[in-house]
Amino acid sequence: MKQWMALFLAGCLVSGVAFATVDEFNTAWRAYRAAVADADLVAELSTSADVVELGRNLFDADDERIPALINNHAAALLKNGHVQQANALFNEAFQQAKRIHGKNAEPLLVLTLARADLLDAAHEWDTAHRWYKESLRLARKVYPTDSLEFANAALQLGPELAKRSPSMGVSLLKEAAEIFEANAATSDVGVTSFYIGRIELARGNRQRALKAFEESLTQLDTSVPLAKARSLAARAALVPLYERRGDSEKATEHCVAIGRDSKFTDDQDYLPLYRMAPTYPPAMLRARIEGYVDLEFTVDESGIVRDVEATQVVHTGQKKGAESIGTATQLSRKQRQFADAARAAVERFRYAPRFVDGRAVATPGVDSRISFEIEE
Question: Which of 14, 28, 142, 290 has the least C-beta neighbours within 10 A?
Answer without folding.
Answer: 14
